[in-house]
Design a protein that fits this description.
Layout (H helix, E strand, L loop, with lengths): L18 H9 L6 H12 L6 E2 L10 E3 L4 E6 L1 H4 L13 H24 L3 E6 H19 L1
Parallel strand pairs: 3-4
Antiparallel strand pairs: 1-2, 2-3
Helix pairs in contact: 2-5
This protein binds zinc ion (ZN).
Zinc ion (ZN) binds next to helix 5.
């Protein structure tokens, strides 16, 4: 059977029918996402420096890693990582595809945290939505670990 090529954008993900989902997907580029940049600016403003970005030699490639202090920071987009706080939008089409994808993301996150903690790392998960209301508290949490 022939595949409907028009249905796929890059062979990985179905084209979202819903505009909201489409916007979220386009905004996701893996690295240096908007939430990441926002958080790094907040750290910079608080004088926190000395982390590595997307360090491949650290398990799970944390978004930020303070190597000496063994602090791994993950900045999670609520949609992709299925935030437990704001209960993000679930695409209405291709539900099965998304369910599988989200489940994989969530499981991968759980594994990363567990493995890092087992190997003596502190882990900090920053949710995109929390940054809107609790940026100060999150930055303090990181500052307390770093300093
Ligand atoms: Zn959220």
């Amino acid at each position: 059977m022939r595949e409907n090529k028009a249905y796929y954008r890059d062979g990985r993900a179905p084209i979202p029918k819903c505009e909201h989902t489409s916007r979220l997907m386009s905004a996701n580029k893996g690295k240096n996402t908007k939430p990441e940049v926002l958080f790094r600016k907040a750290l910079f403003a608080s004088g926190i420096r000395g982390y590595r970005l997307h360090a491949k030699n650290v398990f799970g490639t944390p978004d930020l890693a303070f190597l000496k202090k063994r602090i791994a920071v993950f900045i999670n987009g609520c949609f992709w990582h299925r935030c437990p706080y704001c209960k993000p939008h679930m695409p209405k089409s291709n539900v099965e595809f998304w369910s599988v994808k989200f489940e994989k993301n969530v499981q991968r996150d759980i594994l990363k945290m567990a493995r890092l903690r087992e190997t003596g790392w502190h882990t900090v998960v920053v949710w995109e939505c929390q940054m809107k209301t609790e940026m100060g508290a999150i930055v303090n949490q990181v500052a307390n670990l770093v300093n």
